[in-house]
Amino acid sequence: MTQDYISYIRSKVGHDKIILTFAGGILTDKDGRVLLQLRRDKKTWAIPGGAMELGESTLDTAKREFFEETGIKVQATRFLNVYSNFEEVYPNGDKVQTVVMIYEFKALNDFDISDFHNEETLRLRFFSEEEIAELESVSDKHRLMLEEYFTNNFAMGH
């Protein structure tokens, strides 16, 4: 298959609602602040991650997407949770119910996020729990993931 999985599926179903699997990860700095990306498509702060491609595991997806969106190579230190009861509509009209696997990561290399940006990421920044609570542009799904992370209380059935 020469095109990515989402493009392939969308060529068949258009903008209709579909279920897609996503994976991402949480990386903290030495002060316990969480790295978030300002997404180019939605202009919202989010946990770095993205869609699974055919033949990938969710862990491979999470590591690949994290690197693509941050430039940081990571290793998973633990699996955190699955979130499957959220729906989204993308700016182009695509509708999706997401199944998201979230991992906790540690960086494998030194990094500098001060000027990182690309086609998916406008900006990267570390945020404390209190700073995240003040952000208006965080989706309910990501807010829940971050709340569970900071409290270390992961509920089942999302």
Could you walk me through the main structural features you see in this protein, from its secondary elements to its overall organization?
With about 160 residues, the protein is of the alpha+beta class. The protein contains 4 helices and 7 strands; from the N terminus they run αββββαβββαα. It has helices at about 5-15, 60-70, 130-135, 140-150; strands at about 20-25, 35-40, 45, 50, 75-90, 95-105, 120-125. The strands form 2 sheets. Strands 4-1-6-5 form a 4-stranded mixed beta sheet, with helices on both faces. The chain has a 3-stranded antiparallel beta sheet with strand order 3-2-7. The longest helix has 13 residues, at about 60-70. The protein is globular. The N and C termini lie far apart (about 30 Å). About 25% of the residues are buried. The mean pLDDT is about 95.
For the structure shown, list the relevant keywords.
158 residues, alpha+beta, 4-stranded mixed beta sheet, 3-stranded antiparallel beta sheet
